[in-house]
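Hey, I'm writing a tutorial for new members on how sequence and structure tokens pair up, and I'd like a real worked example in the thread rather than a made-up one. If someone can provide the structure for the chain below, I'll link this post from the tutorial.
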Amino acid sequence: MPPSKPIAPWMIYGANGYTGRLVVAEAQRQGLQPVLAGRNREQILQLGRETGLETRVFGLEAPEQVDEGLRGMRAVLHCAGPFVHTYRPMVEACLRLGVDYLDITGELAVLEGLHALDAKAREAGILLMPGTGFDVVPTDCMAWELASELPGSDQLLLAFVNRGSRVSHGTLRSMLTRLGEPGAERVNGQLLPKPIGRLGANIDFGIVQRFCVSIPWGDLFTAWTGTGIPNIVTMTAARPLMHRLLRFQALYNPLLQTAAFRRLLVHWVDRNVWGPNADELGQGQALVYGKITHPDGRVREARLALPESYRLTAMTSVGLVQQLGSLREQGRKGWLTPAAAMGPDWVVSLEGCRWLEPA
């Protein structure tokens, strides 16, 4: 693992959002002074007054505005979702200006789109490192650790559960952009559409057992690019009743995809959802399970215990910004996942993160 070497100046875009504010607080806790930015003038300026940090206000609609907003930065940590709508103008500005790009997305379409820009990023001499939060740091590290334990494996299962917490406003907004769409699985190296919840299983996370269903998590792309494992399934905890309801999704998915229904849900989320409170952030816990299978039948399993997922996102994303100077000194550029940058044990070097059994 390379030594920590901060890079400056750098920016948190979307600093006024739920996760963005946690990232800002973590950056200040680590003694860093990021520039705070976003499109909401009132909220950004107020956050600047509260923190004493420099602020910039700009949207992402006009390339010249994004260029001006990023002027002078060496890196941006992009925290403003839904990323499927926001990543392209931000990363294109980073390519034009030579600014390292990091984000906290786990959206498959975004990960694919960023990976396709690898050659341009190398030409521009910048790093593209998406998935710097709970999506996908711990699962990425899990995949790399298991692949090193059992080289030549052809099947990977990754699952996670959040205990004692709840989803944030921004996460729900991102989920609504994909409402009613099919899930996905990696099959023989191909990312194929599969119904969400097609697979269900009871999984032992070491501390608790939970029923889990298959979902289209970011590791279907990142773990594949990192390990080359051709068959990957990602799962999360869900009630068995939800699994049964998902069997009939073909009947109600057309309704979920309508603009009117999505607007209704977005309105409800905007009025009623913010995110975990202070107690949930402090007491919640995330657990990750991984299982890898070799063609000869050998199997390896591993488990991670972690802080609450939004708290972990703040820790990992700021921690990776701290490593940018060292990564640049090593000549690293282009597409890079967190585990590819830092190694599979990096996550357990962070406070409150540990393997539950030898991996």
